[in-house]
Amino acid sequence: MVINIEKVRGLKRVSGMQNQPLIILIFLFFCFGSMIFRLFWLQIIHGPRYKELSNENRIKLVERSPIRGRLLDRNGEILATSRFKYNLYAQPRLLDKETWIDLKNTIGKLLKISDELLEIRYQKGIDSKLFRIPLIYDLTPEQIVRFQEIAPALKGIQLDIDVLRHYPYGNLASHVMGYTQPLTAEEFKILSKRGYKIRDRIGRTGIEAAFESDLRGEWGGQMLEVNAFGAVQRNLGEKPAVAGKDITLTIDLGIQLAAEKALSTKKAGAIVALDPRTGAIRAMASRPAFDPNFFSKLFTSQKEYDSLFLSENKPLFSRALNAYDPGSTWKPVTALAGMETGQFPPDIRLKTQGCITYGSHCFPEYNRVGFGSIGYEEALAFSSNTFFYQVGVGVGSQALYEVAKKLGFEALSGIEIGYEESKGLVGNAKWAEKGRGWGKSGQTPWIPEDMASASIGQMVVLVTPLQLARAYAVFANGGYLITPHLVDGQVDWLAPDKRSKVDLNVSFLETVRMGLRKVVESGTANSLNLSKFPLISGKTGTAEDSTGGLDHAWFVGFSPYELGELVVVAFAQNTPGGGSVHALPMAKQVFEAWIKTRDMNN
Fold first, then answer.
1. Where are the domains of the chain?
2. What is the model's pLDDT at position 16?
3. Lowest pLDDT segment from 14-18, 63-67, 353-357, 486-490
4. CA angle 359, 360, 362 (to 5 degrees)
5. CB 537 within 8 A of CB 517
6. R_g of the chain computed on alpha carbons
7. Are 478 and 466 in contact, with CB atoms under 8 Å apart?
8. Phi, psi at residue 215, to the nearest 5°?
9. Is 411 helix (H, G, I), strand (E, B) or coil?
């Protein structure tokens, strides 16, 4: 059989041509199927995400920071405000090494800044991996104009506005107002959920911290449509930034200035002046102080930080809210304890002497001879130690402690910046039995020497200047324990939860009041017995420093005597010489400023 080869080859070619369209059709179906699946994947499944990315490329949000609310004194004087500063920044992502060298030379010549300083700041920003590197702070108007003239040619260099806190009176009432600082990375993780931005500043201490939510305001912004080259095409909408609320303080600038001046001659101390009727604080000064503008600087060296935070003078520490030995200013508390127990009634007379022995120590009278047989009023006027030793030791530590608690001691006062406040200490037998805060229970018993010291505000008694002002307000206002405060706001400060009647016999309070008046009439504070003053009552004090330092000087007073309108506490830390020598003149300056303010308002 002969096979026709050509016929076979023809059959094969015909068979191949018949299958080719099917293969092409399958291939095309696969291609179109892949395209349709890809479109489905992009448009349906991931459509919203890609739309968001597209909008981000097309739409630019320009954020606008809010203006922080101002702090005002009770008469509307500005104590803290905001200030605009123009600063020059470099954007390192847009610059290479050669471009930066050229820009540095141009900027240096244009704005009269040394190349070395620009290089130092730029390299510091590079090392810190900053998105924007600050080059020049607080440009002058002339520098701004010079820069703007050639700004388009300086790619990667940006002029921007920073809103910074400004305190026009420097360190005045710095511990009251506090300061602001930029957010830390850890804070931003938490506060970003509440609308904070990484560029925000937050109140750290004082009123700035206590009223942060009111002062900060809300961010705004402008939504712009841009093309591929970044040029603005149109404005798509705008949300104005909302300024923070102004806070009006109870502080009176005139009285505060007088308090600051009175303290200026002392190494350390505090002055508190408040209205005993409502608790409104008219002045609160502490020395050493600090300038809160320090924290508004955009650049601060480590040396500057160390000089403030590591200073042995502790300028950030509020003496008005810290506890110290009160000395003789404590004697009215002992007097009330004696009368309240009934052991030492208001008309009692006790024999004073050169010294009285308790335990192993003879506790002296400050004049070393005594004042004869005297009652409460004379004992307060002369500031007799041996009179109050007898009363305090006679009633015991628990009775003294209970009266002290009624007057607001060993407790926070309720002031808005109370997180900085010490509770103080009123030592007693129970406290000693538990270890005195440093020893073991049962090994540090209360001894007679403790009780004698507690009677005159020494060693085992520590109080803050603010606590003393609050306690003496009870004597000034007819027997009410008030809540000291720095902002009146919408609060009723005469409501029972803010101003409560003290559970002490009114006649006993009057006995103390008469004694405090005699202190000024004929006692240790007679230099305040001036006709130009409304009648002033008060108490001087000299206290040994239980930490081992020099003596403290105190004066606490209120005026007018009939119904007090102002209580003043003056405290000179580690200033030996006596309360009448050092603290009383400080208080006198504050009372003089108050009288001027009082006359202007009447």
1. 61-248, 253-295+319-601
2. 52
3. 14-18
4. 90
5. yes
6. 37
7. no
8. -80, -30
9. coil
Q: Taking 60 as the threshold, does the pLDDT of residue 232 lie above it?
A: no
8 A C-beta contact, residue 366 and residue 385: yes
CA separation, residue 541 to residues 336, 555, 572 (Å):
18, 6, 11
How far apart CA 137 and CA 389 sit, in angstroms, is 63
CA distance 78 to 174: 14
Note whether 271 and 468 are within 8 A (CB).
Answer: no
Distance between CA atoms of residues 139 and 159, nearest Å:
9
- Per residue in 542-571, pLDDT (tens digit) is 999 999 999 999 999 999 999 999 999 999
> CB of 103 within 8 A of CB of 122?
no
CATH 3.90.1310.10 fits 61-248, yes or no: yes
pLDDT of 222 reads: 66
Verify cis geometry, omega within 30 degrees of 0, for the bond prior to 560: yes
- Output the pTM of the full model: 0.82
Distance CA 115, CA 97 (A): 15
| 197: confidence class by pLDDT, cuts 50, 70, 90 | confident
DSSP bridge pairs for 234: 225
Going 527 to 533 to 539 to 540, the CA torsion angle's sign is negative
pLDDT band at 8 (very low <50, low <70, confident <90, very high): very low
Give the number of other Cβ atoms within 10 Å of residue 300's Cβ.
12
Residue 195 CB neighbours (<10 A): 12
Average of per-residue pLDDT values in the chain: 88
| pLDDT (mean) for 27-56 | 62
Q: E-assigned strands of 275-325?
A: 281-287
Tokens of 158: 């940006």
Confidence of residue 11 (pLDDT cuts 50, 70, 90): very low
Q: Contact, 426 vs 400, CB < 8 A?
A: yes
Residues 288, 293, 298: CA angle, nearest 5 degrees: 135
Residue with tokens 């209205």: 275
User: If residue 166 lies in a helix (H) or strand (E), which one and from where to where?
Assistant: strand 157-166
Phi, psi of 480 (to 5 degrees): -115, 135
Q: Of 555, 560, 558, 565, whose CA–CA distance to 586 is shortest?
A: 555
> In this structure, what DSSP letter does residue 188 have?
H
Q: What amino acid is encoded at 556 in this protein?
A: V
Nearest to 463 by CA among 323, 570, 328: 323
H or E segment to which residue 400 belongs: helix 397-406
Tokens of 218: 């809300």
- What is the end-to-end Cα distance of the chain in Å, rounded? 142
What is the DSSP code (8-state) at residue 245?
P
* Secondary structure (H, E, C), 485-552: ECECCCCCCCCCCCCEECCCCHHHHHHHHHHHHHHHHHCCCHHHCCCCCCCCEEEEEEECCCCCCCCE
Whether 6 shows a pLDDT value over 70: the answer reads no
> Which tokens hold the place of 169?
């009176």
Q: Evaluate if residue 50 carries a pLDDT over 60.
A: no
Fold of 253-295+319-601: Beta-lactamase (3.40.710)
Please, how many CA atoms are within 13 Å of residue 515, restricted to the half-sphere of its CB?
A: 30
